[in-house]
């Protein structure tokens, strides 16, 4: 009888794991998988060079508005917002663990997908951001304290299986 309950519990765990990855594209369809990963994510780490501080990462919410280009709503008082006007280089890293738990894998496991979009940049973006993150609409707008930023993608680094990083050009990433 105990083994019956064990198998039922095992079945529930397998079904829940599968439910977390439903809609996950094939890892070998690199452009589709990369766009899916960016679209499914809601937040990531922005890394940037600072003239005042050591290089750092900053957690930020974003939305891609269905375009694959991440848009941020950042304060000019935050570290990223202070640096962007003088040095627009930066990158966004998103991990699959942030939205589906990677089936219980560690975040560093290569089968737990992660992507870094690197860059040397509206109304549509703001609507997409506010839809994905409703609390943004309550952020102060006085003196242009907050602004919409778009990451212009120049380079892509993707790991999504037990293999070296995946080769993907910016053109392939944005192709439909």
From TrEMBL:
Keyword Signal recorded: yes
Domain CREG-like beta-barrel residue range list: 25-174
Stored Pfam families: CREG_beta-barrel
GO cellular component, one term: cytoplasm
Leader peptide range in chain numbering: 1-23
Oxidoreductase as UniProt keyword: no
PANTHER family: CELLULAR REPRESSOR OF E1A-STIMULATED GENES, ISOFORM A, CREG1 PROTEIN
Protein name, per record: CREG-like beta-barrel domain-containing protein
Source species of the chain: Salvia splendens (Scarlet sage)
